[in-house]
Design goal:
The protein is of the alpha/beta class and 248 residues long. It is built from nine helices and seven strands, in the order H-E-E-H-E-H-E-H-E-H-H-H-E-H-E-H. It has a seven-stranded mixed β-sheet with strand order 1-3-2-4-5-6-7, with helices on both faces.
Length: 248
């Protein structure tokens, strides 16, 4: 299926798979971009076609204004994805992307989108709130937090020019993620699979288990060795899990 012009701005389809039996929409973490999911797309194709979300203000959208409100992002993406989620589809989001995937799902299910599943990675449940203010720190403080989580290539953080390029997107995304608070209302009806690292400082097992309260479908919790970016070491296992769930 050819993406509409509006969707083409938001969605990257690295391995078009017209014969795929399902689609997986992937939502990046704070400071992340669509290219993070290129390996996932390669691994799942052609059985599953991956649509990776590209937020404004990064990579080929670097000239566009950043969006530091998760609800604004969710509203915009829901409009874009409404026309792209016909047929079997699932969502995967990591960290901030998990909250965003959940909010987009909340908007699309009442409009007729039937999700096969919602995979929420490295993120506590919406009602498991923390008072975090990393986005208010100076540049050094923000970078120290990013280094602590090991989510950005160390070589990038040592390059002053690259740091200046990524800092605005990082700060904007951290603000969106940290100021996000659950708004009561209908949740989702699809199965939810929560995935966490066993040493992730951003989410405990108890906080992840609270996702079960936000779906009328089934709930699973999968724990992997590692921290907030356990995905980097366990990409093959996570991709295999997603493929099995979508095939089932």
């Amino acid at each position: 299926m050819t993406l509409s012009l509006e969707a083409a701005a938001w969605i990257r389809r690295f391995h078009p798979a017209p014969s795929a039996t399902a689609r997986l929409v992937c939502f990046p973490h704070a400071g992340g971009s669509a290219s993070y999911f290129h390996p996932v797309s390669a691994a799942l194709s052609p059985a599953v076609e991956v649509l990776a979300v590209q937020y404004p203000g990064r990579q080929d959208r670097h000239t566009e204004p950043l969006v530091d409100d998760l609800f604004v992002l969710a509203d915009g993406l829901a409009e874009v994805l409404a026309a792209e989620t016909a047929g079997p589809v699932a969502f995967f989001g990591h960290s901030m992307g998990a909250s965003l995937a959940f909010e987009v799902a909340r908007r699309l299910e009442p409009r007729g989108t039937r999700l096969l599943g919602l995979f929420v990675s490295g993120r506590r449940a919406p009602t498991a709130a923390r008072d975090e203010r990393t986005h208010e720190k100076d540049d050094e403080g923000l970078l120290a937090e990013v280094k602590r989580l090991s989510g950005t290539d160390a070589q990038v953080l040592e390059n002053d020019e690259l740091v200046r390029m990524v800092l605005p997107a990082l700060r904007s995304d951290y603000k969106a993620a940290e100021l996000y608070h659950y708004r009561p209302g209908a949740d989702v009806s699809c199965p939810v699979v929560a995935l966490i690292g066993d040493h992730d400082p951003k989410v405990t097992e108890a906080e992840a288990r609270q996702w079960a309260a936000h779906t009328s479908g089934g709930f699973e919790l999968k724990t992997y060795p590692g921290g907030h970016f356990y995905l980097n070491e366990h990409a093959a296992a996570v991709t295999r899990l997603i493929g099995e769930r979508l095939a089932g």
